[in-house]
Amino acid sequence: MINDRLQRSLDYLRISLTDRCNYRCTYCMPKDIFDHDHRFLQKNQLLSFEEIISFVQILSRFHLKKIRLTGGEPLLRRNIEALISSLKNDVGIENLSLTTNGSLLDYDKCRLLKQNGLDAITISLDSLRDSTNSMLNPYSNVKKVIDSIYTVIDVFGFVKINVVVMAGVNSNQILEIIEKFKNFNIEIRFIEFMDVGETNQWNLKKVFSSKLIIDEVKRGYELLELPYEKGSTAQKWKLVNYPAHIGTISSITQPFCNSCSRARLSANGIFYTCLFASHGYDVLSKLREHEDHDQVGREIETIWKNRVDQYSLDRLSNKIKIQKYSKIEMSYIGG
Ligand code: SAM
Ligand code: SF4
Ligand code: SF4
Q1: What's the whole-model pTM score?
Q2: 305: how many CB neighbours lie within 10 A of its CB?
Q3: How far apart are CA 300 and CA 271, in angstroms?
Q4: Could you tell me the distance, in angstroms and rounded to a whole number, from the CA of residue 6 to the centre of ligand 2?
Q5: 204 alpha carbon – ligand 1 mean position (Å)
Q6: How far apart are CA 117 and CA 143, in angstroms?
Q7: Per the structure, how many domains does the chain have?
Q8: Which atom of ligand 2 is nearest to 101's Cα?
Q9: Does residue 4 belong to any structural domain of this protein?
Q10: pLDDT in tens, 169-221
Q11: Atom 3 of ligand 2, nearest CA residue
Q12: 88 in ligand 2 pocket by Cβ < 6 Å?
């Protein structure tokens, strides 16, 4: 294991498999910017599955335990099940999960992902109403996403859903989302709108805080707070009398940098030590220049041991000026 300068180990990698997506959520890939003129990465600019596996093998010497496949929309990568199988069965990653917008999942695909070694799926769904979704996420199909949620429960026995809550947009719909899913083995994670990237017009007034979220939930349900799990981004509650759990991810109002053990590998093969980083280590070039893997491992070790990232804590204490800070888009760096 290796620890950074704040005693956080490197045990979790999130991999963005592509910067492309068939959706255009306003908080992630606003459609006026990610339009037909936008230059997405070309195939040879993406890490191949073999390159991803080589890099994960390099990291596994540091006891990497957990990987999440994300994007962009990860299910746009053809034959993703082959990657899943190698990561699980050849490299031996203990906990392998995927975050998806749910638009490309059906029963057969879900079964295939599970059979190849995927442990869990998270699906993003911000509202049950077509009218709200057309504002937040113009190309989404709510019915299809809800069907995918039920399919994942059927195949995996459990699902997490991510709900980005934006003040005045879907913040009045928290109870109806819980009402819909409260009887299932599900964790509904309400996420504060984050200032990732440069294009989503973030401002503090659009953030609906976790405290307000939980106040809203308590208007309809009794909650039992669960102990904090070290390294988790979420604070969790059990809904009393129902199987469902609630989580909040408070990157803005209660940052969890102190226990952040997450590294990121972007779609174009850059290794980042923070979601809000502005530069990283070019894995793709190193691998294509046939750099010795032990040497890459030593360089990653040095980078991690010098890591001091705590962007969200610094934002909260006003140590950084958000406008002056150049950040990578969510779809590149991996949400
Ligand atoms: N396309 C997939 C999906 O939407 O689930 C995976 C990638 S997406 C970037 C991963 C997660 O990041 C989603 O749950 C999405 O809601 C969340 N996300 C994207 N932009 C965000 C933002 N600005 N603030 C908070 N969460 C965000
Ligand atoms: Fe696509 Fe996911 Fe970003 Fe929405 S949040 S635009 S679905 S990558
Ligand atoms: Fe981790 Fe960076 Fe987020 Fe803090 S701001 S929790 S260090 S990714």
Answers
A1: 0.96
A2: 12
A3: 9
A4: 31
A5: 18
A6: 27
A7: 1
A8: 7
A9: no
A10: 999 999 999 999 999 999 999 999 999 888 988 999 999 999 999 999 999 99
A11: 28
A12: no
